[in-house]
Amino acid sequence: MSVLTTARDVVTGRTPVPPRRGRHGAVRRRLETVAEHSLLIALAFIVLMPFVLIALTALMTNEQTMSPNLWPEAFQWHNFTDVFHRIPLGRYAANTFLYAALASVGTLVSSVPAAYAMAKLRWRGRNAWFLMTVAVMMLPTQVTLVPLYSMWAGLGLVGSLAPLIVPMFFGHAFSIFLLRQFFLTLPQEYLEAARIDGCGELRTLLRVVLPLTRPALAAVAVFQFTFCWNDFMGPLLYAGNNESNWTLSVGLAQFRSTYQVEWNLTMAASLLAAVPVVILFFFAQKTFVQGIALTGVKG
Q1: d(CA 189, CA 186)
Q2: How many whole angstroms separate alpha carbon 185 and alpha carbon 289?
Q3: pTM summary value
Q4: String of DSSP letters for the chain
Q5: 19-40 pLDDT per residue, tens
Q6: Tens-place pLDDT, residues 200-216
Q7: Alpha carbon distance 242, 164 (integer Å)
Q8: What phi and psi values does residue 187 have, to the nearest 5 degrees?
């Protein structure tokens, strides 16, 4: 737009029309955006590619799964219903949800008071107990398998999911550590104000601390729920001899060994088993990421 054209618009009182930007400018901006996020796009492609292959295999026929073709010739949607006729997938899912939900509740109920005591209460031996908690995190699970199995077998609970759920109500080392690091970031003035108003430690924990630590609680719950949902060794060890208490991980492993060539049904069952965890993370994503970001700021 020239100076003469601008002066003419001012004299006549017309609103100047901004210059039109061609399609080349929009394409350039898109290319710049793609270039700026190229690393994230590549990482997202790497992460999503296995799920895409699983979904495509689940929609194939059994014969096509062994072929080099990656795209289904005809989408076999009935594979997702055929899975329920081959194995009791609904019962396995119910057992898995029961195990994951109760273990998550037990972890929160037991870990929150322990983490609060290690972070905000002054008592002799607090640091020593915290070091013991960290040491338990470093202890491999395989070291305690034999004595724990002998104990639960003596109690007659082998064949059920009780040996996996009951210990969660007595504390979880990683959850205690994660919550303690978050509790340390809370201002001490809030707790002192509650104590001045006459609140005891339990009421201070329930009325003051817990509302401020929802992101950390959500992070612990998602961590524990996801671990229990995907756990294979624990259910196989304690409930492997009782099919009525099998979880999805154990059931899918037996399904694959029984129907070795039917990879389409195996992938369909695996995709159905992954859907609840994906939905849980989708709805709790914001709170979960916030809890991870704020945990460990102060140590």
Answers
A1: 9
A2: 16
A3: 0.79
A4: --HHHHHHHHHHTPPPPPPPP-HHHHHHHHHHHHHHTHHHHHHHHHHHHHHHHHHHHHTS-TTGGGSS--S-SS--TTHHHHHHHHS-HHHHHHHHHHHHHHHHHHHHHHHHHHHHHHHH---TTHHHHHHHHHHHHHS-GGGGHHHHHHHHHHTT-BTBSHHHHGGGGG--HHHHHHHHHHHTTS-HHHHHHHHHTT--HHHHIIIIIHHHTHHHHHHHHHHHHHHHHH--HHHHHHHTT-GGG--HHHHHHHHHHHSSS-HHHHHHHHHHHHHHHHHHHHHSHHHHHHHHHHTTS--
A5: 555 566 777 888 878 788 888 8
A6: 888 888 888 888 888 88
A7: 15
A8: -60, 135
AA identity, residue 7: A
Question: In this structure, which amino acid lies at residue 179?
Answer: L
